[in-house]
Design brief:
This protein is of the alpha+beta class. The chain is built from 6 helices and 4 strands; from the N terminus they run H-E-H-E-H-H-E-E-H-H. It has a single domain, classed as Glutaredoxin, CATH 3.40.30.
Length: 122
């Protein structure tokens, strides 16, 4: 299985999925926001993956995420989020990195997305 296929499979498994690195402050911000809203995201800490895994370790997954984030923002997000984390998927679809998540939260579109994905009930 390619790293891209692995990301797609992992992202579609739960209502909200966060790809993170344990020491990343922006990843922490996104996880705290979601937890504070009552969402229990599935979190994959990529620095804890085995890079010798034939299906693609954390480094390969992170490279795929950086590419997806750059595509999703018209290339602009790639420079800002070259690390590829945090990457947040809601309902199996890429929402984006920290800027997209915070922007969605501020403009009021995050809660409806979370409700539609089944991550929030109120």
């Amino acid at each position: 299985m390619s790293p891209l296929e692995r990301v797609a499979r992992m992202a579609s498994g739960k209502a909200v999925v966060v790809f993170s690195v344990s020491g990343c402050c922006m990843c922490y911000v996104v996880k705290r926001l979601l937890l504070g809203m009552g969402v229990g995201p599935t979190v994959y800490e990529l620095d804890q993956f085995d890079d010798d895994d034939e299906a693609g370790g954390g480094g390969e997954i992170q490279a795929v995420l950086a590419h997806l984030l750059a595509e999703g923002t018209g290339g602009a997000g790639g420079a800002k989020n070259a690390a590829g984390v945090p990457a947040v998927f809601v309902g199996g679809k890429l929402l984006g990195g920290v800027e997209e998540v915070m922007s969605s939260h501020i403009n009021g579109s995050l809660v409806p997305l979370l409700k539609q994905a089944g991550a929030l009930w109120l």
